[in-house]
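Allow me, if you will, to draw on your knowledge of protein folds for a short while. I have a record of one protein: its chain in single-letter code and its fold written as discrete structure tokens. Could you please explain, in whatever detail you think fit, how the structure tokens follow from the sequence? The record follows directly beneath this note:
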Amino acid sequence: MARGLADIGAEGVLLAGAGRAILMQIANPAVGHGVAEHSNFAERPLDRLRATMTYVYAVVYGTEEQLAAVRRAVNRAHAPVRRAADDSTAGYNAFDAQSQLWVVATLYDTAVTVYEKVHGALDDDTADRIYREYARIGTALQLPAELWPADRPAFARYWDESLRNLEPDAAALRVAHELLHPVSGPFLMRLSMPLVRLLTAGLLPEELRAGFGLPWKARHRRSFDGTIWLLAAAYPRLPEKIRHWPKNYYLGRLGPGEPGPGE
């Protein structure tokens, strides 16, 4: 029987792609301008990470009460993120279905990309099942089920077309710089930022890496490849309790009926 999203979604190593997913999201102006004008997550990235991952874990593993609490919190956070089109912007709305589709698409593609680099390629049956199940990350909010591409080939066409139309603008570049070069925050977080920048640059598609101005010379490629090799060699051998710690931690903080985290 093919494995599904619940079989891989708890792997903590997927968090290695967090920077990639965020930069890909904000490269779309419909998402990036809302983030730039309505969020200070660059000043508190761990809160943003906690909010996003608690939502994802609640969708995949949580109780109905936990999911309802997180859904309410996300919707409250999204409610003010809107602006009508004018001379300076095409406008944005956090409840816009196309914007939510792009956000979920980046989470899905990033999770699969990181998982396969560490654990090897998914077989077709497992990949198909995970793809179908990932739609619920969006449909648990406002994404209509029919908007999620019908299958993986359809997703690949949507993904390739979306990438061709992405070009980080000034707002996206500013948020990316603040995120990857924090001037405040926990010491251990700031200490880890060179590794975060390396993984983010290495996991991004080449065009977006260049668009964000991330350095990528031969030494960066060697460091990235070596880091991925170490992860692939060591991570799968860790006890499940360690590999699944983020999921257990975030869900453990979200008791039944308690309010979910804001963004």
User: Anything to note?
Assistant: Residues 257-263 have pLDDT under 50 and may be disordered. The CA atoms of residues 79 and 238 lie 41 Å apart. The longest helix spans residues 97-119.
